[in-house]
Amino acid sequence: MDSQEVLAELIGILAPLAKGRAVSPDTELIGDLALESLQIMNLVLAIEDRFDISVPVNALADVRTVGDLAVQIEKQLGHD
Amino acid sequence: MGKLQRLQGIATARKELDALGIDPFGVQIDGIVSATEGVIAGRATILAGTNNYLGLTFNPECIAAARAALESQGTGTTGSRMANGSYAEHRKLERELAAFYGKRDAIVFSTGYQANLGMISTLAGPDDVAVIDADSHASIYDGCRLGGGEVIRFRHNDAADLAKRMRRLGARARGALIVVEGVYSMLGDRAPLRDIIAVKRQYGAVLLVDEAHSLGVLGDRGRGLCEELGVVADVDYVVGTFSKSLGSTGGFCVSERSDLDLIRYASRPYVFTASLAPATIASTRVALRLLDEGTDLRRRLRENGERLHAGLAALGFRLGAPPGAVVAVVLGDKLAALQFWQRLLEHGVYVNLMVPPATPNGESLLRCSVSAAHTPAQIDAVCAAFAAARRSAA
Hints:
Shape of chain B: globular
Largest sheet of chain B: 7 strands, mixed
Helix content of chain A: 40-55%
Number of strands of chain A: 0
Radius of gyration of chain A: 11 Å
Strand content of chain A: under 5%
Radius of gyration of chain B: 21 Å
Number of helices of chain B: 15
Structural class of chain A: mainly alpha
Shape of chain A: globular
Structural class of chain B: alpha/beta
Distance between the termini of chain B: 40 Å
Order of helices and strands of chain A: HHHH
Strand content of chain B: 15-25%
Largest sheet of chain A: none
Number of strands of chain B: 14
Number of helices of chain A: 4
Oligomer: heterodimer
């Protein structure tokens, strides 16, 4: 799975939570999608299962945007 | 988010509470009458949110031992054990804790929080992996942060999810530190420890169990969930606190592993903190003996937990877990929980208000903890207060 495919897959997972708003790599999870910490945690659990990875808690501290999250997923998939 | 922004968020939340005339996080207890009664805002109040599980805070033997130590050894140690030396009683307590668990050795820390901070930060350093239950206490998360290792969360109490995370780690799973709690403080639910131990064995990991809320509560001798399930020997590090069942303050870790004594030298929360005062050590040593002998205390605690659970269930409240020393009423909505908590106080009952993000599933809770020292009449009065508080809400 290449970077574009990871991003497309991620945007597909986020779309139902976006309530009709467009989701791009620059979309902020808290600022734009107004996700609460519990929603983000559940979202991460779902994403981890979808890609069969574990994103370390430490890495999540740097995640603000959809693009940031995609980078972490790629990192765990061994793309970096 | 900068400091000013963070504090502004707190100021806004405080203002909301002020507008409601409720101050759940600044309660002043003007008088302590006994292990189960206090005076709050001039009102006699049943304390049902203090984690004083065995009710030993006013035990005459504990008080006498503390008083004798205070008079013979002074008010404090005025420094850390590394710098100022250990008092003989610090080591005596450690040996007694080790003997209680049948383990090689123990380390005493100055608080329960620091026991997790000190152990986890040392066991999971920069090149290590810690795999922790998602609903872990802040001291576990903070220990991970201080250690600087990689931190992986698994779904709460889900051994299959833990196994999945271990598989994903590949070769790094060997030696990874798995951290769980015997009883989770918010809802009072228990870890599936046998299943977790099976995963630990399969992957060659190391297991730390925090028995803060199960020490004195579970197991024939009160050693916690690991004793109740007969798996004391399978747990590499057992952490606990003195500030609940033992009625004082402090924390500990016991282990069979030979590296435990080396951890003393590497653990910053141990090295750089003043050691426990003589009176605290003295009362804790007596309390540990009473806990060990306390089959009757545990029976009363269990009966009180069952009585409160049954009483609140009969009133139709949604409860967080099967009967135990922690009985959590799940209210969901934060404002409703705030107002309910305040009305309970007006009816002479103090419980813990718990709101997100500290709570699981984003739901607000009224968390009760029972004590062996509660009388059946007090438990019934707590149930009656819940019923009355709900009526006055309608």
